Amino acid sequence: EPLFLHHIWAGLLYVAGGETPAPLDYSKAKPEENRFSKVILAEKLNEPMELSVLNDGRVLFIERHGAVKLYNIKTKQLKTIATIAVSTKYKDKEGKTSEAEDGLLGLNKDPDFATNHWIYLYYSDPVKSENILTRYTLSSDVLDLNSKKVLLEVATQREQCCHTGGSIDWDAKGNLYL
Q1: Is the separation of the CB atoms in 105 and 120 below 8 Å?
Q2: Which DSSP state fits 22?
Q3: H helices within the chain, ranges in order?
Q4: Is the distance from CB of 159 to CB of 139 less than 8 angstroms?
Q5: Kind of pairing, strands 48-53 and 77-83?
Q6: In CA terms, which of 100, 103, 139, 150 is 20 to 30 Å from 126?
């Protein structure tokens, strides 16, 4: 679509500074090293995917094979608080099984987590050929698996491997993006 391509090109040209853009000074884009400190929460993880810092500073994170882990910054303790059953295999038409990139892919807390204690997870259903966006309640250090609410089901194929993703985020108006 030529009109659409021209529209995209004009937008790129605009943000780049026009027909004769000034050279970029990348030295201004690098933050000072003293602004950051590296803190290792855990080592030898099994494919960590995403994390969310809770209101009290605890860090909730997930591993692709289904582990939901919680790191307590005060005690410096890490524990697995749940294991979500996920699909991590593909099976083609001939019955050959291969490793997939599916699993527990997305995690985020609700913008009103301090009040409602809701956690959102996106993962591959272990039985059906679909990925699901779910909501759970996190009470203290316990992910209540009985509180599961399926919000969205996304049909997918599980015959051939492909790149998968499922990051969860919120906008300023409280809209959930997958």
Answers
A1: no
A2: P
A3: 2-16, 113-116
A4: no
A5: unpaired
A6: 139
